[in-house]
Amino acid sequence: MYTIREKGKNGTLEITSDFLIRTIKKRLGKDDRETIPIRAISSVRHDRKRMKTDDVQVVTSGQVWEWKVKNAEEFVAELNQALASD
């Protein structure tokens, strides 16, 4: 599981064999959870920053996801491995 920041909110990313699961924490009510199929991802872009969190962009056919990811190099490597095995 990887820690992310999206539009000023904290969350997590989890890579499974078939899905990328994005969960954004909310103060009240249920967390915002999105399931992105691995097959739908067309590209992954990693923009290295000097701080501990790098920008990662995941492109699907219908949407572009942008996050600040802690341990982004590990995340991108694991996601690319999941894309290659699919």
Rg, nearest Å: 12 Å
Could you tell me the strand content as a percent range?
Answer: over 45%
N- to C-terminal distance: 20 Å
Mean pLDDT: 91
Shape: globular
Give the tags:
single chain; 86 residues; alpha+beta; 7-stranded antiparallel beta sheet; 53% strand
Care to describe what's here?
- The structure is a single chain.
- This protein has 86 residues and is of the alpha+beta class.
- Helices cover 16% and strands 53% of the residues.
- The chain contains 1 helix and 7 strands.
- Strands 4-3-2-1-7-6-5 form a 7-stranded antiparallel beta sheet, with helices on one face.
Give a summary of the structure in a few sentences.
With 86 residues, this protein is α+β, with helices and mostly antiparallel strands. The chain is built from one helix and seven strands.
Set down the secondary structure blueprint.
Layout: E1 2-6, E2 9-15, E3 19-24, E4 32-37, E5 41-47, E6 53-60, E7 64-70, H1 72-85
Antiparallel strand pairs: 1-2, 1-7, 2-3, 3-4, 5-6, 6-7
